[in-house]
Amino acid sequence: MNGPPVGTRQARGLLRVAFGPSLVALVLIAAVVLLQLLIANSDMTGALGAIASMWLGVHQVPVSIAGNALGVMPLLPVLAMIYGTARTTASATASSSWFVTRWVVASALGGPVLVAAICLAVIHDAASVLTELQTPDALRAFGGVVVVHAIGAAVGVGSRTGRRLLHATPLPRWLPDAVRAAAAGVLALLGLSGAVVAGSLVVHWSTMHELFSITDSAFGQFSLAVLSVLYVPNVMVGAAAVAVGSSAHVGLATFSSFTVFGGEVPALPILAAVPTPPLGPVWVALLIVAAVAAVAVGQQCARHPLPPLQATAKVVVAAAVAALAMALLGFAGGGELGNFGDVGVDQATFGPAVFLWFAGIGGLTVVMSGGLQPRVRPAPAPAEPEPDDADVADPDTEIIDVDPVTAPVDVDPPADEPAAADPEPMGPPIDDAAPPADFDPEEHFVVDEGGEDGSPGNRARGAQ
């Protein structure tokens, strides 16, 4: 059987992107609110207003109840909302054209904005009945919703079409590697900070037990446990700020790697992990956490070696992206907390400290891990041999090119042809028959006078 038409599938995908994460969040929030009201034996008068306020609180919109502002919203729900938006947009943009991708992004932003407008209207209507509930600022509400879902849409679309978009721009090809290195550094910093928080909770177990004992009901303790879990990312960001050399504060209480100023903190069990004065030397070991996270950034940057200039640019971009992400988490995890005052990290030093750690230690790790391509020097040209004196032609000598095909060849004359006479004789011919003019024949004759035996003599012999 054939599936639904392409247009129908795309329409379903756009609806899922526009309203899927928001409706899931509304259902979960409604279940929690109704359960709380049911256990407290309360009527359902302000249920809708509470649900709408909590949905806006998921998008970091402050909630005001009876004049007390709750600006420190938990980071875990907003991170879950970003993840849900990224996942739905990524599935909708798989192998899609740019035209469909633009519609996916528009749906990811348009649907939540519509839900935010409905929530504002519900809160405004409920505030007329419940005087303790106040309508939040509309600009802040719409701005928070747009920012949260824009981040999720950017992550989802970038995971599918990031490299294709990069090839169509003059941006460097190593940019995805830098973003991956920044993500590795952020996850390493938060993960190690979470391990430090868990260790601190074990050390301060008695304090955490006392904070759970402020209520006797099991449901109240369960609610404190759930609330503590929701605020775990906030405490991890604060521990990360302390690890890089910055500071975190809860009202007047300030915490850093070098000093601690005591103060009143909320009775939330997760806050039992904060150090108490006097500061012990173990908290200085938090600086090792920042160094290890910076090493993770350098190792990711060194996976694909580059020339020194490009490798340096990659490390700097990765450190800048990681510092921006941590600064954004620090801003989202802080705010006003009623009578306790401002809660959060020192924004003036948090981002720069993360950048310095990641750029410095990360760059050193790139050099030590072989992330730099060696400079290839051109091979020297072979030296030409010096010519001998015999091979050097006289500049005054005229050189004639002779064609080996047409050049004359010396051939011996045939045997039947007489050899050519020498035009220049070496001397006059010698005549052997004619004696010389002063020749005396008598000087050349010898007279034999005979032997002792009486043999005849007087025989003349010619001289030899």
From TrEMBL:
User: According to the UniProt entry, where is the signal peptide?
Assistant: none
Does the keyword ATP-binding belong to this entry?
no
TM helices/strands, residue ranges: 17-39, 59-83, 103-123, 138-157, 178-202, 222-245, 252-274, 280-299, 311-334, 354-372
One Pfam annotation reads DUF6350
Biased composition range(s): Acidic residues: 385-401
InterPro entries, A to Z: DUF6350
Composition bias, Low complexity: 402-437
Q: Which domain of life is it from?
A: Bacteria
Sorted alphabetically, the keyword list is: Membrane, Transmembrane, Transmembrane helix
Region named Disordered: 376-464
Q: Does the keyword Glycosyltransferase apply?
A: no
Its protein name is Uncharacterized protein
Q: Which organism is it from?
A: Mycolicibacterium duvalii
Lineage, top ranks: Bacteria, Bacillati, Actinomycetota, Actinomycetes, Mycobacteriales
